[in-house]
Design goal:
Transcription Regulator spoIIAA, seven-stranded mixed beta sheet, six-stranded mixed beta sheet, binds S-adenosyl-L-homocysteine, methyltransferase, alpha/beta, 30% strand, Archaeosine Trna-guanine Transglycosylase, Chain: A, domain 4, SAM-dep_methyl-trfase
Length: 400
């Protein structure tokens, strides 16, 4: 049996049920575990701590499957974990055809993300889209795919493991069909009554920002009669929600022409009046400043940029970028206006993000009130023992 023994006192984080062990916590490895193989993890005194996946190339050397000594890691284990995850979504997620079915560590499947899309109107048999981002889930891919198909009854599974993080695990980037049919060229799903195209093969992540569902619903709820600005709009998620909520006018900015083409198609798919939507194919930083200079004003602004801080060393530069766009956001708001502002940088925590936004409000010389702290939906649970899982944070502010 492959066994990994930790250095003295390095068992503490596992006893708190944190699911990772870094290479520098390891005293010795017995046996010759291959990449992704299951190992028993023991404290220095020999006590059982967990069963985990071994990742010889990564600084995160072990990812825990189970803290239960009696639980073997086999096909039945993956079946149970996937069924549990599916049952959670069935119980907690409503009014959507786009669900995060597996959210890594929080679902006991570290390094795995799976989104489940159902076509609007129930056409087709649905589409599962997976990202395998760690050696353990890579090694159990077949069992996981079988479990996904079994739990959901959806026969179509597509892999979007074209993510650079795989290199840290010694894995190549890969995409392709894992089961069933290739993804439909046009997959249109419905969320809160609004239809969205999902580009499973080449869109961002698995094709859609499933994590922003609750936030799109909020924008939809508050958009009626308002002038809305949506920055970094991608395929128009928030823009469509605003149009669906009865916004008077929605201006959206993105530097990707392809994303904007899909956004326009989304307007059409919903039968919304295209004259209410304006799409600017441009750099958001410069465009925001130009809009301020032109004296444009809005009642609701959304700022949902890409990850400005992919790692710790980018935090300072990222903080300046967040401050820059939020400063413009505040300047563009009419009194009483709402700002929905987000960061998906794991390296910037909620406190720091709030400080940055507060600094931007001060520079804009406005009083900003936080109406609500925002995050991903209930299909993106956060393990209490694993704060690293909280990547998306947002604030809904009102200027007075
Ligand atoms: N808000 C979106 C997701 C944003 S993803 C949603 O809810 O679906 C980030 C987007 O920012 C991408 O579409 C990317 O094309 C765009 N982007 C990145 N840098 C940009 C820049 N400097 N100016 C404008 N858009 C940018």
């Amino acid at each position: 049996m492959n066994t990994v023994t930790l250095k003295p006192s390095k068992e503490k984080s596992l006893l708190r049920r944190h699911p990772w062990v870094y290479a520098n916590a390891i005293d010795r490895v017995e046996g010759k575990p291959a990449s992704g193989a299951t190992v028993v993890v023991r404290a220095h005194d020999g006590r059982f701590l967990a069963r985990a996946a071994y990742s010889p190339h990564s600084q995160i050397r072990l990812r825990v499957w189970s803290f239960d000594e009696a639980e073997p890691i086999d096909h039945a284990f993956f079946k149970r974990r996937v069924q549990r995850a599916f049952a959670h979504r069935q119980a907690f997620v409503r009014d959507t055809g786009a669900v995060r079915l597996i959210f890594g560590e929080a679902d006991g499947l570290p390094g795995l993300v799976v989104d489940y899309y159902v076509q609007d109107g129930g056409a087709g048999s649905g589409q599962l889209v997976c990202q395998f981002m760690a050696a353990g889930v890579e090694a159990w891919k077949e069992a996981i795919v079988a479990a996904l198909v079994g739990a959901t009854g959806c026969p179509n599974v597509y892999e979007r493991s074209d993510v650079s993080i795989r290199e840290k695990e010694g894995l190549e980037q890969i995409t392709g069909v894992l089961a069933g049919d290739a993804p439909a060229d046009t997959l249109i799903t419905r969320e809160n009554g609004v239809r969205y195209h999902v580009d499973v093969r080449s869109g961002h992540k698995t094709g859609f920002y499933v994590d922003q569902r609750d936030n799109r619903a909020l924008v939809q709820a508050y958009a009626a009669g308002r002038d809305v600005l949506n920055c970094f709009c991608y395929t128009g998620g928030f823009s469509l929600a605003a149009l669906g909520g009865g916004a008077k006018r929605v201006v959206s900015i993105d530097s990707s022409g392809e994303a904007l083409a899909l956004a326009r198609a989304n307007v059409e798919a919903n039968g919304f009046d295209a004259a209410r939507a304006e799409w600017l194919d441009a750099d958001a930083f410069r465009t925001l400043r130009r809009l301020v200079d032109d004296g444009e004003r809005f009642d609701l602004v959304v700022l949902d940029p890409p990850k400005f801080a992919p790692a710790r060393e980018h935090v300072d530069r990222a903080a300046r970028a967040y401050k820059d766009i939020n400063l413009s956001g505040f300047r563009l708001l009419r009194p009483g206006g709402l700002l929905f502002t987000y960061s998906c940088s794991g390296a910037i925590d909620a406190d720091l993000f709030q400080k940055i936004v507060a600094g931007a409000a001060a520079d804009a010389r406005v009083d900003a009130r936080i109406l609500k702290r925002l995050g991903a939906g209930l299909d993106h649970p956060l393990l209490a023992a694993f704060p690293e899982g909280e990547y998306l944070k947002g604030l809904l502010l009102q200027i007075v």
